[in-house]
Amino acid sequence: MATALAGGLVEGGICRLGDVVAADILVAARDAFTAATGIATEADNETALATADVVVLAVKPQVAAEVLLPLHGMFGDKLFVSIAAGLSLANLQKWVGSDRLVRVMPNTPALVGKGAAVYACSGGVTADDRALVERIFGAVGIVMEMDESKLDAVTGLSGSGPAYVFEMVQAMVDGAELVGLAPEAALALTVQTVAGAAEMAARKMGTPDELRTAVTSPGGTTAAGLAVLEDAEFREIMARVIRAAAERSAELGQG
């Protein structure tokens, strides 16, 4: 995700190449980041932090406190942006020692400029800060602001959602192979079908229910397939999937 954001900032003309720096303790991670983006890296956070106006925390939530506590009080009036899942603004404020904080839930399609990000702000965030956050994440997809109380739900939906789509794609490919299609053709047709359906929904050519109805003839092939999904309580399953991910996000936020 850090690679996607950094690349989007440079490619979108929001920052020059030399205006961005990343820090990581692992040599392999630093080398991979620079190879992918052309952006310089540092081995320690203090060096990267010294000249930064905006700091982005892009680590697993389980190690965030370990990363931030040694830096407590060093952030001054820098804008601090966290993309670590589940970490609350309250915890970040304790660890960072600042109230100019933004919590963001992005997702991995940012890697191809199709990300979906939702952010929430602490009390010290200004209108200019909000505009900057929207420019940063808008460079790799759509972005919107919500109350922090909604972010666990967002995590369960768009944050984890790409994995659900990939699981569905693989299931469709497997099913297509069972009825005789070659793997390459099954994958190509599935991906194009999913992308096309998503584009129709994005263009608001109808609600999802309306679009489904439009391609479902009574007694036809689509109706036969949908009947299986209904018997399996597909919608109820998806609601449980999103709820489980949202609840796990809340658990991570509680430490």
Description:
This protein is α/β, with parallel strands linked by helices and 255 residues long. The chain has two domains: 2-158, NAD(P)-binding Rossmann-like Domain (Rossmann fold, 3-Layer(aba) Sandwich); 161-253, ProC C-terminal domain-like fold, CATH 1.10.3730.10. It has helices at 2-11, 27-37, 45-50, 64-68, 89-96, 127-138, 151-159, 161-178, 183-202, 208-214, 221-231, 234-253; strands at residues 21-23, 40-42, 54-57, 79-82, 101-105, 115-121, 141-145. The strands form two sheets. A five-stranded mixed β-sheet has the order 3-4-5-6-7, sandwiched between helices. A two-stranded parallel sheet has the order 1-2. The longest helix has 20 residues, at 183-202. It starts with a helix and ends with a helix. The relative contact order is 0.10. The mean pLDDT is 93.
Task: Summarize, please.
The chain has 255 residues and is of the alpha/beta class.
Provide key terms for this protein:
single chain; 255 residues; alpha/beta; Rossmann fold; ProC C-terminal domain-like fold; 2 domains; 5-stranded mixed beta sheet; two-stranded parallel sheet
Q: Which regions contain 5 or more consecutive residues with pLDDT less than 50?
A: none
Domain count: the total is: 2
On the 0-100 scale, what is the average pLDDT?
A: 93
Based on CA inertia axes, which overall geometry fits?
Answer: elongated
Topology at a glance:
Layout: H1 2-11, E1 21-23, H2 27-37, E2 40-42, H3 45-50, E3 54-57, H4 64-68, E4 79-82, H5 89-96, E5 101-105, E6 115-121, H6 127-138, E7 141-145, H7 151-159, H8 161-178, H9 183-202, H10 208-214, H11 221-231, H12 234-253
Parallel strand pairs: 1-2, 3-4, 4-5, 6-7
Antiparallel strand pairs: 5-6
Helix pairs in contact: 7-12, 8-9
